[in-house]
Amino acid sequence: MKASPRKILLLLVVVVLVLGAAVYWLRREQHPAPAALTLYGNIDIRTVDMAFNDAGRIQHLGFEEGSAVRKGQVLAQLDPLRFQDAVDQATGVLAAARQQLAKLEAGSRPQEIAETRAAVASAEATLHNAQITYDRQRALAAAHLLPQQLADNAHQALKNARAGLDSAQQALSLAVQGPTPEDIAAARAQVKADAAALALAQRQLHDTTLIAPTDGVIQTRILEVGDMTSPAAPVLTLALNNPVWARAYVPETELGRIASGMRADILSDSFPGSVSRAGSASSRPPPSSRPNRCKPPTCAPSWCTGCASTPAIRRGGCAWACR
What is the pLDDT of residue 301? Predict the structure, then answer.
């Protein structure tokens, strides 16, 4: 009985599938998948030494070592008393400078101008009287009826009266014209300088409060309440939650299995069964070693600095788990 074409085609398909499976199995036996590369390393966390901008005595510390903090929380505070006094002083100086500027911009008051006019009139009367006295004394001295010294004294009094009138007239001119543009400009500059001094005093008062710049964990309390501190003396050490790197050292014989940009799964004995996906891997070798660093995309606040991890780096990527 002759076989149908459909049966022959089906038989050929089965034979091809069997042969393909056999070839795949043989190649797999000859070239097994590489085993996962297990590396041991540490978790590197960046830290920030928190210090005040000015010197002072610590009045308050808000957190203990190991406490988690959020961005914007108050970490510590200096005694603000003398900084507040500086703000009050700068406020008073600025107010006085503004009043002086307003006085110059307003010019002379009518009463001041009237006062200088009266002074001019008085000086004119004094000069007129001095002129009459001098004329009389000079005539009598010429007739030898008075000593010449009296005539000389009258002449000097006349000169003084003329100088007094000139001074009064100049004062009246200044009162009418008012302050010069240079005086007003100098007063405005003084107001700006005093305003800047007040802003600086207010900034120094604000800086008596130490604020967390980002989320993190208090790693070390270096100073305590009552200690004197300065900008060069950190008060706290803040361990940042991000970024966090897991660092491992790859043997020379395994370098061919590692490439920058590989993915990784991070495993840790502190969190059994927990696997974290690393964001990327990079190689930054020190002079005598070959490290591989994987950066986890997120890190739990409970992870500690310098902890040992057991990362498994596979050929398709690497991953870490941190304590």
Answer: 35
